[in-house]
Amino acid sequence: MAVRVFVSYSRADLAFVDRLDQALRARDIEPMVDRTEIYAFEDWWNRIQALIARADTIVFVLSPDSVASQVCEREVAFSASLNKRLAPIVSRSCDEQHILRRLKSLNFIFFDVEKEFDDAVEAQRISASRR
Fold first, then answer.
1. How many CB atoms neighbour CB 16 within 10 A?
2. Does the pLDDT of residue 56 top 80, yes or no?
3. What is the DSSP letter of 91?
4. Per-residue burial over 45-68, b = 16 or more CB atoms within 10 Å of its CB, e = otherwise
5. Dihedral sign from CA coordinates of 25, 30, 31, 34
6. Domain of 119: which CATH number?
7. Percent helix, strand, coil in the chain (nearest 5)?
8. Residues with Cβ < 8 Å from 36, sequence gap 6 or more?
9. Is 31 helix (H, G, I), strand (E, B) or coil?
10. Which structural domain, as residue segments, surrounds residue 46?
């Protein structure tokens, strides 16, 4: 069975998340992204909670937009309430003072250098498989 990861992100990072989604799938990791896993007229927050509950790891895509997002903050808080493993990854540099305390203390994987994207995905794969 593939490792399942819920991806928490800002809509401003959708292009990055699309690329991450493809790269993770190629490495037998099942990303659960809210734009493909939530259906029309469905209660979106209940669905997000169900996806987080099913996930082995919660990947939080760090960017200036995601650290400012109240929805992303709710996703992190709910994940922490379930004792889910949080995996912060940096898609775009952001001011450290705005990063949630729960995420600040964790080691980040950096995707903000284009030429090192594949190496960062591989590090994420290895990290996600260590439950």
1. 19
2. yes
3. S
4. eeebbebbeebbbbbbbbbbbbbe
5. positive
6. 3.40.50.10140
7. 55, 20, 30
8. none
9. strand
10. 3-129
